[in-house]
Give the backbone structure.
Amino acid sequence: MPAEIHLQAIGVVHSPRQVAEDDHWGPVLSEIRLESWLPEESLYGLEDFSHAEIIFFFHQVPEEKIETAARHPRNNPAWPRVGIFAQRSKNRPTRLGLTTVRILRRAGRSLFVQGLDAIDGTPVLDIKPVMQEFQPRGEVRQPGWVSDLMRDYWEKKEAGA
Amino acid sequence: MPAEIHLQAIGVVHSPRQVAEDDHWGPVLSEIRLESWLPEESLYGLEDFSHAEIIFFFHQVPEEKIETAARHPRNNPAWPRVGIFAQRSKNRPTRLGLTTVRILRRAGRSLFVQGLDAIDGTPVLDIKPVMQEFQPRGEVRQPGWVSDLMRDYWEKKEAGA
């Protein structure tokens, strides 16, 4: 039997986005508010980093939507069938999300960030500072479909779009 | 009450390292073997990426070692007291580890990787492909103590050291 792991959220996302959308996450400003079991000082020093990695839980994905096999990303037949672990889709076995955000400021029990692709109310499981030394070592290579899929992911929404 | 989240490991690490050590993780070669509840095809396509992010569970950290406040990284008084979320230490509230590894090859139900700083037997919670578009947007800034702390983290161990 694989290990069963029980985690308690360390914070919650406050975001203007109430509904999961595929694209336009770059300008989104969010607040991560600490849960009460953690002291304010657990966040001390994050303001000296430009970026943080946020691990969160896709709490609105129902179990029956979880994919364990290979499929076309976003069900687009123009892209190859790849395994769920070769995608960053939310319908993944452990429903963990992971995104690098820009740190705007820390204030009391809150961290204010830009570019967090998690909707309002999302449980946060960890915050880690981005360190140069934890960036990929060696050149990053990826298949061609990724750039297609990611084209509008961070872009600002066009007026009227 | 914060959300309680129950996760099942998706894989396990097979590593030559049996004991947690602070440094010299760069050359370490590991195998991540899928748990039996997941099909082999969940890994399809990972071989077209150079790097993956591995989320794992520091299963050997006992609850009483978990830090929730601020402290000197590695208890070194030369470095400033910072909160646990401004560090990547394993003694963190949810005991989640996160590392970018180089993908060497996929074979059946296993992914072979280099530079995974997780000991033998570590439960793996997620594998995500590294996409250029998920790299930090904008310049990465960090405080001076980080480079000191990370000096030998990935380096090969010197003979006799």
About this structure: The longest helix of chain B spans residues 145-149. The mean pLDDT of chain B is 92. The beta strands of chain B are 4-8, 11-14, 29-34, 51-57, 70-71, 82-83, 96-107, 110-114, 123-129.
